[in-house]
Amino acid sequence: MKQHDERRNEILDTALRLFFSQSYSEVSVAALIDAVGIAKGTFYHYFRSKEELLSELVLREASRQIPAYTAIAEDPALTAEVKMQRMFLTIGAWKADNRELMIASIRLLYRDENILLRHKLEQASIELFAPPLGTVIHQGVNEGCFHTPYPEVAAELILSMWSALTQRVAELIMRCDEEPHLAESILDRMRAIETAIQRFLGIPDGALALIDESDMRRILMPPAV
Amino acid sequence: MKQHDERRNEILDTALRLFFSQSYSEVSVAALIDAVGIAKGTFYHYFRSKEELLSELVLREASRQIPAYTAIAEDPALTAEVKMQRMFLTIGAWKADNRELMIASIRLLYRDENILLRHKLEQASIELFAPPLGTVIHQGVNEGCFHTPYPEVAAELILSMWSALTQRVAELIMRCDEEPHLAESILDRMRAIETAIQRFLGIPDGALALIDESDMRRILMPPAV
DNA sequence: CGGTCTAGACCGACCGTCGGTCGATAATCT
DNA sequence: AGATTATCGACCGACGGTCGGTCTAGACCG
Question: pLDDT, tens digit, for every residue of A200-216?
Answer without folding.
Answer: 999 998 888 888 888 88
